[in-house]
Design a protein that fits this description.
The complex is a heterodimer of chains A (455) and B (176). Chain A has 455 residues and is an all-alpha fold. In chain A, helix 9 packs across helix 19. The longest helix of chain A has 34 residues. Chain A is globular and about 75 Å long. The two termini of chain A are 43 Å apart. Chain B contains five helices and no strands. The longest helix of chain B is centred in the first third of the chain and has 42 residues. Classes of the chains: A mainly alpha (455), B mainly alpha (176). Chains A and B meet through helix 2, helix 4, helix 5, helix 13 and helix 14 of A and helix 1, helix 2, helix 3, helix 4 and helix 5 of B.
Chain lengths: 455, 176
C-alpha cells in the first residue's frame, strides 16, 4: 500500500508547492515526475504508466471538442474589447437607473451578458469592476453592495453558456461517463456532450440571475438608501436596441446551434469568433493592431490552458500509477451513508480546492478522479457537471480566498475596502448555496431542457 | 555573465517573434472553420483537408505558443503570496522551479517522444482519412519542438533570475 500513500502525499505536496506561486502547470507535472522517479527507485511505480504521456499529448492536440476553446476565447476577447459592454451598461443604466436599485439591476444584466460572451471569470470581474464600480459608487450605492454585486455577476461566466469552463468540463465528463458505464457493464452506452452541458446550464443560470435581481429589488425596498436612484438621463431607445441586438443575436445563434445539435461546438465557436470580428469591424473597433492584439491574447490564454492540460495529464498518469484512483474509489465504497454523502464529500472537497485551484486545474486533475466513481453510483452526468460548475462558482466567490474577490481587489484601488468586498458577497454566497440546494432537490431543473432536446 | 545574458536575450527575441507570428493562427483557424461550415451546410461538401487544417493550426497555436506565453508571464500562478514577493524572492521561485520542475519535465517529454516521432517520420505518417493532410509526422514533431522551445525559455528565465539574485547580492555587499 506504499504506492497509495505516495499518491496521497503527492497530492498534498502539490497543494503546498503551488503556494510558492510557480506556474501551476509546471508545478503539477514536475512534482508528479519527481514522485514517479522516487516510486520507480522504491519499486512501487511501473514506468510504463509514464510511457503513455506522448500519446496523451498527441490525443489532446487532435481532440475535436477542445478546438472550440481557442475559438471561444477569440470570440470573447473581441466582444470584450469592442466596448460593446460599455455602451450597453451606459444605455441600460439610463433605462433603469432612475428607479431605486435600477442601476444595480442593469449591472447584473450587463454582467450576465458579458459573462456569457467572454466566459472567463477574471476578464468579466475586471471589466465590470472598471466600468460599473465607479458609476455605482457615484450614484450613492453602498460600497459593499456594489462590490458584492460585481463579484457575483463576474462569476456567472463560469456557468452561463457558452462558457469555456463548460466546454472543458464537457470533454472530461464525457470520457468519465464512458468509463463509468464500461465499469457497470452497460451494453448500450449513452454519451454526454458539451451541448448537453450547455442546455443543462441554461435554467440554473437564469435562476441565479433572477435571484440576484430579486435580492437587488429587496434591498432597494427595505433599505432604499443603499441602492438609490441615479440621476435621470434621457434614454436613447434606438441606440439601446442597436447596441443590444447584434451581440445578443450572435450569442443566441452560437448557443442555439450547439444546444439544438445543429452544429458542433467547434463550428459554432468558429462562426461566433468570425461574427464577433464582423460586429467589432462594423463598430470601427477592429483595425489591424486591435486584431493582432486579440490574436495575441487568444494565443496566450490558449497556451496557458493547454499547458495545464498537459501538466494535469502527467499528474493523473502518475496518480493512477500509484493506485491513487483505487484508493479514492475504496474510500467512497467503504463510506457509509450511500451515494448522497459521497457526493457531499466530493462537493465539499471541490469547494475547498476552489480556493487554491482554478476551474481548469480542478476540471483536469480532480474531476477525472472522482467523476467516474460518482457516475458509477448512478448520478446523472449532466446534473453532476452542472453541480460541480455552480459549486466552483460559489467557491470563487467565497471570502477570504475566492478568486473573484482578488480580481476586484486588484482593480478597485481604494474605492472600496477589502472588508466591504467580503461583506458584500455574503448574500450572494447565500443565494449560490440556496441554488445548489435547489438543484440537488430538483434535478429536473438541470436535466429537463437537455431531455427536451431529444437526448 | 555577459555571454549568458546575450544567450538569454537571443532566446527571448526568438520566442517573442515566434509567438507574434503564431498568434495569427488564431484568426486563420476561425476563418478556416467558417469556410468548412459553409462548405458543409451550404454545399454539402465535407472538406477533410480543411477540417484537418484547423486541427494543425490549433495544435501549432498552443504548442508553439507555450514558450512565448512563459516569456510573457501568462502561465497562471497561484499568486496569493507570489504577488507580494519582492524581485529577489520571485527570482528564487522561478530559478528553483525551472531547475527542479520544468527542465526535468521537458527532458522527459523530449526523450520519451523521440521514438514515437521517429517512427512517424520513418513511414512519413499521413492522415487516416482519405483526402486528409499527409503530415501527421509534422504534427507529432510539435511535441519535442514544444519541449525544446519551452526548455530554452526556461533557461533564459533562469539566467535572468540569477542576474537579479547576483546583482542585488552585490548591492547588499556594497551597502554592508
Amino acid at each position: 500500500m506504499l504506492g497509495a500513500e505516495l499518491a496521497l502525499a503527492m497530492f498534498v505536496t502539490v497543494c503546498l508547492l503551488l503556494m510558492f506561486g510557480f506556474p501551476v502547470a509546471l508545478t503539477l507535472a514536475g512534482t508528479a515526475l519527481a514522485f514517479a522517479a522516487g516510486g520507480i527507485l522504491l519499486g512501487v511505480f511501473d514506468p510504463d504508466y509514464l510511457g503513455a504521456l506522448t500519446g496523451r499529448i498527441f490525443g489532446t492536440m487532435g481532440n475535436e471538442t477542445l478546438i472550440a476553446v481557442p475559438l471561444f476565447i477569440l470570440m470573447g476577447v473581441i466582444l470584450e474589447r469592442s466596448k460593446i459592454a460599455e455602451d450597453l451598461l451606459t444605455n441600460m443604466a439610463r433605462l433603469f437607473g432612475s428607479q431605486p436599485g435600477g442601476l444595480g439591476i442593469s449591472v447584473i444584466l450587463v454582467g450576465a451578458l458579458l459573462a456569457a460572451s467572454t466566459g472567463i471569470v477574471g476578464a468579466t470581474v475586471v471589466t465590470m469592476g472598471l466600468l460599473s464600480l465607479p458609476s455605482m459608487l457615484r450614484a450613492g450605492y453602498k460600497p459593499s453592495l456594489a462590490a458584492g454585486t460585481i463579484c457575483a455577476t463576474g462569476t456567472l461566466g463560469q456557468i452561463i453558456p457558452p462558457s469555456i469552463a463548460l466546454v472543458l468540463l464537457g470533454d472530461i465528463m464525457s470520457s468519465a461517463y464512458q468509463h463509468a458505464q464500461l465499469k457497470m457493464q452497460v451494453v448500450n452506452t449513452a454519451t454526454v456532450s458539451v451541448g448537453d452541458l450547455f442546455a443543462g446550464a441554461l435554467l440554473p443560470g437564469v435562476i441565479l440571475i433572477l435571484l440576484y435581481i430579486l435580492y437587488m429589488i429587496a434591498t432597494a425596498l427595505i433599505k432604499p438608501e443603499n441602492a438609490p436612484p441615479a440621476v435621470a438621463e434621457p434614454v436613447n431607445l434606438s441606440q439601446l436596441v442597436s447596441g443590444l441586438a447584434p451581440p445578443l443575436l450572435l450569442i443566441a445563434l452560437v448557443l442555439g446551434s450547439i444546444i439544438a445539435g445543429a452544429a458542433t461546438p467547434t463550428e459554432a465557436a468558429g462562426v461566433g469568433a468570425v461574427g464577433a470580428m464582423f460586429l467589432a469591424r462594423l463598430r470601427g473597433q477592429l483595425n489591424r493592431a486591435q486584431l493582432f492584439d486579440a490574436a495575441q491574447a487568444t494565443l496566450k490564454t490558449t497556451s496557458m490552458v493547454f499547458l495545464i492540460l498537459i501538466g494535469a495529464a502527467v499528474f493523473s498518469l502518475v496518480f493512477r500509477g500509484f493506485g491513487g484512483d483505487r484508493l479514492i474509489e475504496n474510500f467512497f465504497l467503504d463510506m457509509s451513508g450511500g451515494k448522497h454523502s459521497a457526493l457531499l464529500v466530493v462537493m465539499l472537497g471541490i469547494f475547498l480546492l476552489g480556493f487554491i485551484l482554478d476551474f481548469i486545474e480542478i476540471t483536469f486533475v480532480v474531476v477525472p478522479i472522482v467523476a467516474p466513481i460518482l457516475l458509477a453510483m448512478g448520478f446523472d452526468p449532466i446534473w453532476l457537471g452542472i453541480m460541480i460548475a455552480v459549486n466552483l462558482q460559489t467557491s470563487f466567490l467565497t471570502p477570504p480566498f475566492g478568486f473573484a474577490l482578488f480580481y476586484l481587489r486588484g482593480v478597485a484601488g481604494n474605492q472600496v475596502a477589502t472588508r466591504d468586498i467580503y461583506i458584500g458577497v455574503i448574500p450572494y454566497v447565500a443565494i449560490q448555496l440556496f441554488t445548489l440546494g435547489l438543484l440537488w432537490l430538483l434535478p429536473d431543473l438541470v436535466t429537463w431542457l437537455p431531455a427536451q432536446m431529444g437526448r | 555573465m555577459g555571454l549568458l545574458k546575450q544567450f538569454s536575450t537571443l532566446i527571448d527575441a526568438m520566442n517573442w517573434r515566434l509567438g507574434q507570428a503564431t498568434a495569427w493562427l488564431a484568426i486563420a483557424m476561425a476563418l478556416l472553420t467558417v469556410f468548412v461550415v459553409i462548405l458543409r451546410y451550404a454545399f454539402g461538401i465535407g472538406a477533410i483537408a480543411a477540417q484537418e487544417g484547423v486541427i494543425y493550426m490549433h495544435s501549432a497555436l498552443f504548442m508553439l505558443g507555450a514558450s512565448y506565453t512563459l516569456l510573457a508571464e501568462e502561465h497562471v500562478r497561484v499568486d496569493i503570496f507570489y504577488s507580494h514577493f519582492g524581485p529577489r524572492a520571485k527570482a528564487w521561485v522561478n530559478v528553483i522551479g525551472h531547475v527542479v520542475f520544468t527542465l526535468p519535465l521537458l527532458l522527459f517529454i523530449g526523450f520519451s517522444s523521440t521514438n514515437y516521432v521517429a517512427e512517424s517520420w520513418r513511414v512519413l505518417e499521413g492522415s487516416p482519412e482519405p483526402g486528409g493532410i499527409h503530415g501527421v509526422y509534422l504534427l507529432k514533431t510539435l511535441i519535442p519542438l514544444m519541449a525544446a522551445l519551452l526548455a530554452l525559455q526556461a533557461i533564459s528565465t533562469i539566467i535572468k533570475g540569477l542576474a537579479v539574485l547576483s546583482s542585488s547580492e552585490e548591492q547588499s555587499h556594497v551597502r554592508g
